[in-house]
Design a protein that fits this description.
The chain is of the alpha/beta class. It folds into 3 domains: 203 residues, Rossmann fold, CATH 3.40.50.740; 225 residues, Dimethylsulfoxide Reductase, domain 2 (3-Layer(aba) Sandwich); 127 residues, Barwin-like endoglucanases. It has 27 helices and 29 strands. Strand 2 and strand 3 form a beta hairpin. Helix 6 packs parallel to helix 8, helix 9 runs parallel beside helix 15 and helix 12 packs across helix 13. 58% of the residues are buried. Bound molecules: ligand PGD. The site of ligand PGD has 35 residues, from helix 17 and strand 18. Keywords: Metal-binding, Molybdenum, Oxidoreductase, Periplasm.
């Protein structure tokens, strides 16, 4: 059978059926396809798929209301008409009795590639059209701290991250890439909306071949590829700000900083310099001071400072660094360090937050807009910083700080989740379980029985992209892909769009939601915006049918002008940045005015509260997985093949393993004050001593859901992580780090049941 084009967040591909099996092939132009494509074929008909609408027995029996049995109750299979009638009635009840702010539709998550069927976009559009809006969330789990601090001190997130340094510039100009947190290829293999060519590893190789020196600062050696000759500085996790300060100190005392740049384009250097040199607090932030915090050698720190001052240097800060306590500080201090070198705005130099953290960064932008689905107007103003979800549910009406203001948590009665997996992305999962017990109704559309679906009251089976038509496109990828349908819907699964259309009909909002279009009608409509922009540019602008038949369309690429981060250097007053002062804010009067002890007016070393103890002596790094995107298709072949005895793999240093009698391949138990999980040990010197690394994404699998803080037998690190914000400024996710003990698990090994679907129970009274 013919190959049909399709796409995913981790790569464009085509699929065809042979002997009843779906075979997936990477896009032929992709020089470095992601092995994660190997997870897709299993999605078509895996037992973990949700086959029919299901309603929690207790919700059917007693109706909406708080219930701590969520996650431990049985599910009753219910027909589509009945479940849609019940859900529409419940949405109307909550809207009428409590107002739309009582519906939380933030529904964070990566969902799937495809501009039309994007799950959150569909949900938001539906809630706006059908009930007048919803309480929402701001920012992301990826970049919660950076999204708030960067616009205040340097420029808009998009300008700093996406429209800044390109990989071509690195390969052509950069002498030293100082990569805090590295630039792991597993992360840049992913880009929301789809990636047609994976270029990052090739660009790093080309740069290294020309002579670029890569310096990896971080506890894990494989956060830069092995074949680019990187220098590895394995510092203590979470101490990058101290290292940056010491580099800055050496630059300052040796007069290697660019005073002219600091005077012309920055504000606050004198105040910061007093702190750096110890004049304001009596502590000089010198290399010896930082050595005691970071575990690095003081002479090595001084040598690194001299090196970065000696040529074109690019400072990058990986997203992971700010997904931690005081996560704003390394992002801001990276800006200050680069400002001291005076190269912000020069090709291949300066500062590019998160270069190498996603496939969108370091690439040229398209010259035409890609299709987007309008979401309508949200009539509700109540919001939360995204990672404060459990706080919101546990403390309705309580006040919280965010970015200089006090806000109030809405009183959530109905929680609606599509395209995300809080039991993957949130921290302190036992607390999340308790928080979910507080709402009246929890609705989830899911292709698969994730733990989130298992905690819902109403579970509606959703199609995957493989089962529907869509358009894949991203603003920094030149290929727009016609995603053809590769499989029939699994069981009774429906598209999110079809589910919302049926609900909108029941709520009298069908026309407002659908605008009279079916799926094909929407795809052609969304495509027409790009088609018109192409025609306006004089580029080939095929009509929708031609695009669909061709399977892809190459979009023209815009000029690489570097945007405001290049242009500011030419301003006659040196004050052209969109910060309050127009300059790079080394000291921010605005942030100082907020008076937050955990985020003062200039970057600073703020010792963390969550540090190793005698009981929990190891530092856990809970980072992004290499074998799947987040938790998606964890049952797929590639993810499964990389587990050991069905468990996620954690890595630890030989010294730490030997001290605990742990051998490579042993099943271990990771434990701390919040919970425990099993994992399989990989013993390696690629991890700093004192550190254990367990990636996110293994589906939460409680041994006994009736217990508090049950053991997760599969290896989900978010049973261990802390549910606290980065600071009062950004309130971002801090899931990257915590402390644990690790011990060999010698008990009988409980089976992994995360992928077994619940067995339907009888209807109450039935
Ligand atoms: P995914 O596994 O991508 O995780 O968290 P996120 O919730 O995005 O979840 C997407 C879900 O959507 C899947 O269950 C999938 O089946 C479902 N889905 C996909 N397509 C569709 C669709 O079309 N319709 C419907 N209804 N459902 C669909 C990711 C988040 O985790 C992120 S972005 C980051 S950066 C964070 N990283 C960390 C971390 O570094 N460390 C820790 N400890 N925790 C983290 N959590 C965060």
């Amino acid at each position: 059978m013919t190959d049909l084009p399709h796409s995913s967040h981790w790569g464009a591909f085509s699929g065809h059926w042979r002997d009843g099996t779906l075979t997936v092939r990477p896009h032929p132009d992709d020089p470095d396809p992601s092995p994660v494509l190997g997870n897709l074929p299993a999605a078509v008909a895996h037992p973990a798929r949700v086959a029919a609408p299901m309603v929690r027995r207790g919700w059917l029996e007693r109706g909406p209301g708080p219930d701590d049995r969520r996650g431990r109750d049985g599910f009753v299979e219910v027909g589509w008409d009945e479940v849609l009638d019940r859900l529409a009635a419940e949405l109307a009840r909550v809207r009428d009795e409590h107002g739309p702010a009582a519906v939380f539709g933030g529904s964070y998550g990566w969902a799937s590639a495809g501009r039309f069927h994007h799950a959150q976009g569909q949900l938001h559009r539906f809630l706006n059209a059908a009930i007048g809006g919803y309480a929402y969330s701001v920012n992301t789990y990826s970049a919660g701290a950076a999204e708030v601090i960067l616009p205040r001190v340097l420029g808009p997130f998009e300008a700093v991250v996406r429209r800044n340094i390109t990989w071509e510039q690195v390969a052509a100009h950069t002498d030293t890439v100082l990569a805090f947190g590295g630039m792991a290829v597993k992360n840049s293999a992913v880009g929301a909306g789809g990636v047609s060519r994976h270029v990052e590893h090739g660009a790093m190789r080309a740069a290294a071949a020309r002579g670029t020196r890569f310096v990896l600062v971080g506890p894990l050696r494989d956060d830069l590829p092995p074949d680019i000759g990187a220098q590895w500085l394995p510092l203590v996790p979470g101490t990058d700000t101290a290292l940056m300060l010491a580099l800055a100190h050496t630059l300052a005392v040796e007069g290697r900083h660019d005073r002219a740049f600091l005077d012309r384009y920055c504000v606050g250097w004198p105040t910061f310099e007093r702190y750096l040199l110890g004049r304001s607090d009596g502590v000089a932030k010198d290399a010896a001071w930082a050595a005691g915090i970071t575990g690095l050698d003081a002479a090595e720190i001084v040598a690194l400072a001299r090196r970065i001052a000696s040529g074109r240097t690019l400072v990058t800060v990986a997203q992971s660094l700010q997904r931690a306590e005081h996560g704003e500080q390394p992002v801001w201090m990276g800006v200050v360090l680069a400002a001291m070198l005076g190269q912000i705005g020069l090709p291949g130099g300066g500062y590019n937050y998160a270069l190498g953290s996603l496939a969108h960064y370091g690439r040229a932008r398209n010259a035409v807009p890609v299709p987007t689905l309008r979401q309508g107007v949200n009539g509700v103003r109540a919001f939360i910083p995204v990672a404060r979800i459990a706080d919101m549910l546990l403390n309705p009406g309580a006040e919280f700080d965010y970015d200089g203001r006090r806000h109030t948590y809405p009183d959530t009665r109905l929680l609606y989740w599509v395209g995300g997996n809080p039991f993957h992305h949130h921290q302190d999962l036992d607390r999340l379980r308790r928080a979910l017990g507080r709402v009246d109704t929890f609705v989830v559309h899911e292709p698969a029985w994730t733990a989130t679906a298992r905690h819902a009251d109403i579970v509606l089976p959703a199609t995957t992209t493989l089962e529907r038509e869509d358009i894949a496109a991203a603003g920094t990828d030149p290929l727009m892909i016609a995603m053809h349908r590769l499989a029939e819907p699994f069981g009774q699964a429906r598209d999110d769009y079809a589910i919302f259309t049926a609900l909108a009909r029941r709520l009298g909002a069908e026309e407002a939601f659908t605008e009279g279009r079916d799926v094909r009608g929407w795809l052609a409509h969304l495509y027409s915006r790009t088609q018109k922009a192409l025609a306006d540019l004089g580029s080939p602008a095929p009509d929708f049918e031609e695009f669909w038949a061709a399977g892809q369309l190459r979009l023209p690429v815009g000029d690489d002008d570097g945007g405001i981060l290049r242009a500011f250097r030419d301003d006659p007053d040196g004050a052209a940045l969109p910060t309050p002062s127009g300059r790079i804010e080394i000291f921010s009067a605005t942030i100082a005015g907020f008076d937050y002890p955990d985020c003062p007016g200039h970057p600073a070393w703020l010792p963390p509260a969550d540090v190793p103890t005698a009981r929990y002596p190891l530092r856990l790094v809970a980072n992004q997985p290499a074998t799947r995107l987040h938790s998606q298709f964890d049952f797929g072949a590639h993810s499964a093949a990389n587990k050991i005895r069905d468990r996620e793999v954690c890595r630890l240093h030989p010294g730490d393993a030997a001290a605990r009698g742990i051998a490579d391949g042993d099943v271990v138990r990771l434990v701390n004050a919040r919970g425990a999980c099993l994992a399989a040990a990989r013993v390696t010197d690629g991890v700093r001593a004192g550190v254990v690394q367990l990636p996110t994404g293994a589906w939460y699998d409680p041994l006994d859901a009736s217990q508090d803080a049950p053991l997760c037998v599969h290896g989900n690190p978010n049973v261990l992580t802390r549910d606290v914000g980065t600071s009062a400024l950004a309130q971002g996710c801090t899931g990257q780090h915590t402390v644990v003990e690790v011990e060999r698990f010698d008990g009988p090994l409980p089976p992994v049941r995360a992928f077994d679907p619940p067995v339907p129970v009888a209807r109450p009274g039935g």
